[in-house]
Give the backbone structure.
Amino acid sequence: MASSKDRQRKLARAKLDRQMARRAVRERRRRRVLAGVGSAVALLLIVGGVAWIGGAFDKKAPADPTAGEQCIWAPQSATSNTSLKEVGTPPTKDIPTTGTETMTVATDQGDPITVALDVADAPCSAEDLSYLAGKKFYDNTACHEITTDGAVRCGDPTGTGQGGPTYSVYSENLPPAPQPSASPSTSAAPATPAYPKGTVALIGNPAGANGSQFLIFFKDFNTATPEYPIVGKVTGGLDTLAKIGKIPTVADSTGAKVKPKQKILITSLTVSGAAPATPSAPSASAQS
């Protein structure tokens, strides 16, 4: 029979074995944790190195808030010019730049005058008119002048030539100075007019600071120094335009004989959405 000392030695030995086993388990666990941490650190170093090579940590310049802007609307002070009306400003981005838009000018003089706005060559001018039309800026306003150049001048609610919105847009589609047409005859042929009959153009005060005012030419007008940016052409209502052009004029406050003797009222002015550009017809060789 084993003595009590032998039993104590066996129990002590068993206890020591259990402690050693637990210590071994802890050590294996510690090695696994360290191995995992090492792998994660290595992965982070690799990813960071790739990002550094790619310039991810380079100091970037702040984003330009004006990037992508298509039109610039210069503010005009209503304090210095009390004839201006605050209506906000048109958008500067996502403006149509192809096709045409239809402007319809309804007056008390007959059938509406329809205008094809040139969105391709004058996108900001077209956007200007479209924006103001959406604000009903032109409704129930008078065309206050019939110019000596052969155009009716509209778009100023004050009727003074000084009115408009509290912004302006630059001239973007000025016609070139007219050149004589080539002719086989010995006499020079007439120059192509800068503003043919039916042309619609913006007019600014001063020139280049265009707002709401526009001209509709009821006859050809030629000039060596064009200053009115063209925004479109009349496509309907030419009879109404001709009738307006025959209204007698009297002197205005400046003494110029340009004020219509009969009131010309715009009852409404609207602009419809853009129409796609008309594709050119295929050539005979392309069809064969």
User: Anything to note?
Assistant: Residues 4-53 form the longest helix (50 residues). The chain has two domains: 8-55, 74-176+192-271. The domain at 74-176+192-271 is CATH 2.40.100.10 (Cyclophilin).
